[in-house]
């Protein structure tokens, strides 16, 4: 990750805040149709009953308005945690710092991400004629199921899905950037960072597809009465018994494709926006 100067000053946190918000908005708006198709492939209803190829931008406004604070919070906390702990460890242990920083960022970001995912995925798979806003969906979930079981249903499964993803993606991204810098006199362009992000995102996405599938099934479930069936292990066991290993990787192709393209856009825009902020907006 590019150095943004004195990371302990208040102004230094504005750089990843601005760059993260810009990157999150860019990638979510660009790749939303692929995410919709992936969600419908993973839906228990089946692809066509969940909407098929129609209305692939349904729920986009929810994501667009929430992606900015989510990714901004992630990168601000990621950079802040990394800046505190990285000077305390030897260079060979840097990946552990990146993993820890990513876990802090993901845990905080999920406070915004989970309600957004609830509203988004229920919109993506809604086949009724009545229009439902994201706020209305979340209010209904809160009234009927409460805060933990409704609005934050799947919080743990989302964190458990996103942590392994970040444990793979962020250290890989940082490692590949270090290799590029070592061969380029310490410099790296936004394009090169984007390529590193694309490769890291694709590997992480393919590896964590079963966890993403479990999270999707939990969030889309109609009720919360069968508590045992709405936990990660029983959900994955049930899918495996019905469809085998292939079933556990339902939606892996659009997910991997989305994250490879998304990684390119996300990390490229992040580094470019960060450079713009450091050069112009921070003055």
UniProtKB/TrEMBL annotation:
Keywords: Membrane, Mitochondrion, Mitochondrion inner membrane, Repeat, Transmembrane, Transmembrane helix, Transport. It is a multi-pass membrane protein. It is found in: Mitochondrion inner membrane. The chain crosses the membrane at residues 13-34, 55-76, 96-114. One of its GO terms (cellular component) is mitochondrial inner membrane. Solcar repeats lie at residues 11-84, 93-179, 188-276. InterPro entries: MCP_dom_sf, MCP_transmembrane. Belongs to the mitochondrial carrier (TC 2.A.29) family. This is S-adenosylmethionine mitochondrial carrier protein isoform X2. It comes from Bicyclus anynana. The lineage of its organism: Eukaryota, Metazoa, Ecdysozoa, Arthropoda, Hexapoda. The gene is LOC112056220.
């Amino acid at each position: 990750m590019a150095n943004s100067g004195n990371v302990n000053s208040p102004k230094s946190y504005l750089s990843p805040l601005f760059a993260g918000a810009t990157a999150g908005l860019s990638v979510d708006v660009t790749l939303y149709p692929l995410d919709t198709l992936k969600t419908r492939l993973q839906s228990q209803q089946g692809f066509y009953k969940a909407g098929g190829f129609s209305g692939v931008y349904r729920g986009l406004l929810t994501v667009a308005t929430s992606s900015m604070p989510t990714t901004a919070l992630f990168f601000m906390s990621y950079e802040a945690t990394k800046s505190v702990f990285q000077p305390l460890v030897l260079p060979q242990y840097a990946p552990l710092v990146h993993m820890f920083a990513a876990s802090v960022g993901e845990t905080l970001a999920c406070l915004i991400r989970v309600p957004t995912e609830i509203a988004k995925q229920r919109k993506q798979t809604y086949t009724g004629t009545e229009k439902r806003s994201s706020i209305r969906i979340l209010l209904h979930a809160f009234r009927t199921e409460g805060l933990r079981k409704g609005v934050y249903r799947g919080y743990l499964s989302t964190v458990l899905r996103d942590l392994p993803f970040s444990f793979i993606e962020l250290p890989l991204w940082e490692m590949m950037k270090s290799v590029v810098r070592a061969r380029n006199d310490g410099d790296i362009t936004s394009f090169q960072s984007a390529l590193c992000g694309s490769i890291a995102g694709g590997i992480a996405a393919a590896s964590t597809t079963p966890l993403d599938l479990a999270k999707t099934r939990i969030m889309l479930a109609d009720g919360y009465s069968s508590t045992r069936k709405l936990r990660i292990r029983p959900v994955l066991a049930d899918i495996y018994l019905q469809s085998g290993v292939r079933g556990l990787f339902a939606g892996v192709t659009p997910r991997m494709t989305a994250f490879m393209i998304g990684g390119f856009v996300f990390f490229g825009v992040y580094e470019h926006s960060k450079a713009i902020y450091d050069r112009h907006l921070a003055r």
